[in-house]
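Tokens for chain A. Residues wanted.
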């Protein structure tokens, strides 16, 4: 496929499925921004409040551990209560965890908040790709999923930059 055909395919998929990308796609992008922002904000906040590298590692590991424990329950919840319930629960819990980070002033409080953020992230395990599969049309499924993945990956790649720009302009607390 030539470059012009690929560009026409990308923009054609975006045009043909703009309502899906503006709703479910936007939720997927925002979730990816938060997920990847969490991965930089927790260690940076730990450093900002004076934790040593070892303690930051423990806090970060605890957050990722609870995240990993949620893989199976997240899949069960998607099948039992639906994708909208899961994505909203994940976004809400992860957002609350991120919003509470500036309230922590030691290892214990940061670890507890990290657990909330990890729980929120884990609640959405697999949701981005599941939504993509749910929304994908029969005709042109591969192209649709390629664009879906491109947009969600762009959200993930933008996460640290978004948090960094906000932290640079205001503070790390405001960014979280």
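Reply:
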């Amino acid at each position: 496929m030539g470059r012009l055909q690929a560009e026409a395919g990308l923009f054609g998929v975006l045009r043909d499925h703009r309502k899906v990308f503006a709703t479910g796609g936007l939720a997927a992008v925002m979730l990816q921004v938060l997920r990847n922002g969490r991965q930089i904000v927790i260690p940076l906040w730990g450093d900002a409040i004076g934790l040593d590298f070892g303690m930051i590692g423990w806090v970060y590991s605890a957050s990722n551990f609870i995240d990993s424990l949620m893989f199976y329950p997240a899949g069960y919840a998607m099948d039992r209560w639906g994708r909208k319930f899961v994505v909203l629960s994940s976004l809400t819990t992860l957002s609350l965890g991120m919003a509470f980070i500036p309230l922590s002033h030691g290892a214990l409080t940061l670890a507890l908040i990290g657990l909330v953020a990890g729980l929120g992230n884990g609640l959405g395990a697999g949701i981005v790709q599941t939504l993509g599969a749910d929304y994908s049309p029969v005709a042109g499924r591969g192209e649709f999923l390629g664009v879906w993945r491109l947009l969600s990956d762009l959200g993930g790649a933008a996460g640290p930059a978004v948090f960094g720009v906000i932290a640079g302009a205001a503070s790390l607390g405001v960014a979280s």
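The two ends are 42 Å apart (CA to CA). The first helix runs from residue 3 to 16.
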